[in-house]
Amino acid sequence: MGKTLDKDSLGKIAPKLAELTTNTLFGDLWQREALTFRERSLITVSALVAMNKYEQLRWHINFARENGLTEEDIVEVFTHLAFYVGWPSAVTALQTLNDGDE
């Protein structure tokens, strides 16, 4: 797997996408009050596992921790997802979680 683009790298490559990410995604969507940051992280992590987007999952696992998810919460999400999105996806997500701890 390659390196995930950080905000600065994304801004150099695709300034408009970086602007939309900052202003629309995190500045608007994530700030809506209908869901907590924790709930949004649960949804986002689940969606990334379901779509096999493990590069983005690495960053969102750390963001989920900042938003109040514990290691046990994240493992439970991946275990639950095994039956909905497939065993290999859940196991790869667990490996991604484990890789981030090293």
UniProtKB/TrEMBL annotation:
One of its GO terms (molecular function) is peroxiredoxin activity. Residues 15-97 form the Carboxymuconolactone decarboxylase-like domain. Pfam families: CMD. This is Carboxymuconolactone decarboxylase. The lineage of its organism: Bacteria, Pseudomonadati, Pseudomonadota, Gammaproteobacteria, Vibrionales.
